[in-house]
């Protein structure tokens, strides 16, 4: 059995680049495009839905979605993704490595999706964009989209390219550990002196540091959590363990989408969005995200380094091949189970 599996893997390793490779790249890219469209643009859509369908004539503030509707709109795509990945992939366990990949992906997505979905509220809270009451719907969406695009271009996209350039030099483990570390540092640096960053002369500094959390998310665990589960488990379990790890990530995204929707609300009832109870505020939400990133750094210690090793070396499949050869040469030899 091991020899047959290695034969398949060797054939894949020796195969030349063909048309189906590019087909796979395009399919994967379109899948991520639709995923990103649902998850990263939904914050702008909810703004418009609130203004259009929940507008109250004479109100001081523009309309906003009620908490239950906002939670459903933000979370429904993530719930569907989680169910799909579990339905198709949930079969077996693979020890501490699987624990490491699932927990790190889970913790990352709590922090990463929370930041993406609610960065519009953070920009308003520090005064980088005007309050919603001072803008019409088109102006508000434009301001938010411009801010998010600026951060994406200067940090998110740049972080991915740093990972592409350095992943086989620094290694997966080092990049993931470094990413979680700096995400933790910058979250605490934003949260602890939070009042300092809300002052007008310091707003640009806040935006720069906030952008760095996205940079080190993508030059860090938001890239490596996709890669590692596909490299560190045997071929017969690879898609299963990757699916379980990805499902854990989407579970974390659901926690972030639903939990921080309420948590980031002001502690002052007079300053919360319509229909929301008081939360813990932006400052303590950032502290909580910093703690989550710190635990992600700890659970990264369960993930082995796969740089410079073949899939067979990482999963021990070469040992199975060698054991079979030695048994054929010496039938009296027993192999430990």
Shape: elongated
Q: How many beta-strand segments?
A: 0
User: N-to-C terminal Cα separation, in Å?
Assistant: 16 Å
Beta-strand portion reads: under 5%
Transmembrane segments: 20-49, 69-88, 95-114, 144-166, 173-192, 204-228, 240-264, 284-303
Region (Disordered): 313-337
GO molecular function, one term: transmembrane transporter activity
InterPro entries: MFS_sugar_transport-like, MFS_trans_sf
Please characterize this protein's 3D structure.
The chain has a single domain, classed as Growth Hormone, Chain: A. The chain is mainly alpha-helical. GO terms for molecular function: transmembrane transporter activity. It is found in: Membrane. It is a multi-pass membrane protein. Keywords: Membrane, Transmembrane, Transmembrane helix.
List the helices and strands and how they pair.
Elements: H1 2-14, H2 19-40, H3 42-53, H4 67-89, H5 95-125, H6 137-170, H7 172-191, H8 194-198, H9 203-218, H10 221-227, H11 235-263, H12 281-299, H13 311-315, H14 317-329
Name some characteristics of this structure:
337 residues; mainly alpha; Growth Hormone, Chain: A; elongated; disordered C terminus
How would you briefly describe this protein structure?
With 337 residues, the chain is mainly α.
């Amino acid at each position: 059995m091991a020899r047959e599996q290695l034969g398949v893997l060797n054939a894949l390793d020796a195969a030349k680049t063909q048309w189906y490779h590019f087909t796979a790249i395009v399919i994967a890219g379109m899948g991520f495009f639709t995923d990103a469209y649902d998850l990263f643009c939904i914050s702008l859509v909810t703004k418009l839905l609130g203004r259009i369908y929940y507008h109250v004539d004479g109100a001081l503030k523009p309309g906003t979605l009620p908490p239950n509707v906002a939670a459903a709109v933000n979370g429904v795509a993530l719930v569907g993704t989680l169910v799909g990945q579990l339905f198709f992939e949930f079969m077996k366990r693979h020890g501490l490595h699987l624990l490491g990949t699932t927990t790190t992906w889970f913790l990352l997505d709590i922090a990463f999706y929370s930041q993406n979905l609610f960065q519009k509220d953070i920009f308003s809270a520090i005064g980088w964009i005007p309050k919603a009451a001072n803008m019409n719907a088109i102006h508000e969406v434009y301001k938010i989209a411009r801010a998010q695009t600026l951060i994406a271009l200067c940090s998110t996209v740049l972080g991915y390219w740093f990972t592409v350039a350095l992943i086989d030099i620094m290694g997966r483990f080092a990049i993931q550990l470094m990413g979680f570390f700096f995400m933790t540092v910058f979250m605490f640096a934003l949260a602890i002196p939070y009042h300092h960053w809300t002052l007008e002369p310091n707003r640009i500094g806040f935006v720069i540091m906030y952008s760095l959390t996205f940079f080190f998310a993508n030059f860090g665990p938001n890239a490596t959590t996709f890669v590692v589960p596909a490299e560190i488990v045997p071929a017969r379990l690879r898609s299963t363990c990757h699916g379980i790890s990805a499902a854990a990530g989407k579970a974390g995204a659901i926690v972030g989408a639903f939990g921080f929707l309420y948590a980031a609300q002001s502690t002052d009832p007079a300053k919360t969005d319509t229909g929301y109870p008081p939360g813990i505020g932006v400052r303590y939400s950032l502290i909580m995200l910093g703690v989550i990133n710190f635990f992600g750094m700890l659970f990264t210690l369960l993930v082995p380094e796969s740089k410079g090793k073949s899939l067979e070396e990482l999963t021990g499949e070469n040992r199975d091949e060698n054991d079979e050869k030695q048994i054929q040469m010496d039938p009296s030899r027993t192999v430990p189970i």
